[in-house]
Amino acid sequence: MTTFLRRLYRRFTGRDALARLIARGLVVGRNFYMQDGCTIDACHCWHITIGDDVTLGPNVTLLAHDASTKRALGHVRLGKVEIGNRVFIGAGSIVLPGVSIGDDVIIGAGSVVTHDIPAGNLAAGNPARILGLTADYLARQAEAMKSAPCFDQRYTLSAGVTAATKAEMNRRMGDGPGYIV
Description:
There is one protein chain. This protein is 25% helix and 25% strand. The mean pLDDT is 93. The protein contains five helices and 18 strands. It has helices spanning 3-13, 18-24, 70-73, 134-145, 163-173, and strands spanning 27-28, 33-34, 39-40, 48-50, 55-56, 61-62, 65-66, 77-78, 81-83, 88-89, 94-95, 100-101, 106-107, 112-113, 121-125, 128-133, 150-151, 179-180. Strands 2-5-10-13-15-16 form a six-stranded mixed beta sheet. A four-stranded parallel beta sheet has the order 1-4-9-12, with no helix packed on it. Strands 3-6-11-14 form a four-stranded parallel beta sheet, with no helix packed on it. It is of the alpha/beta class and 181 residues long. The protein has two domains: 3-133, UDP N-Acetylglucosamine Acyltransferase, domain 1 (3 Solenoid), CATH 2.160.10; 148-181, no CATH class.
């Protein structure tokens, strides 16, 4: 992609490459994974800290500023965003300014995180609320894996999953869930 196209992309999407955000002051720990379509507040990324082993699902947005006060008060409201270690934030979720998410937290898809989520909790909804403990949720999923089909690396896009393999996965899952590495 040419420099012109990169600038154009950033201008119209508001998304900067992760390296550019880090150069501006975003703090990111080890093993950070951000799926397609994520937006990290490019205008105030230095107010955002992301811990180790964090995954952002597709289309997650992290905001450190809220411009709702700009016209009326002449100032934009800012708030630090702190994401702990071993956190998963589900697809389409939005984390608003001033929010702290503790270690070992799972945020369900489509959530709007408006307040702090303490360590070890599972939260979801709009606004996100605590639904239980992460450990309990993971224990339930581990139990479900015992009777559900589990798929290895051969069933992934990176391994070149075939049409036949995709059909096999759907057949084996039936009406229930499955699990993949």
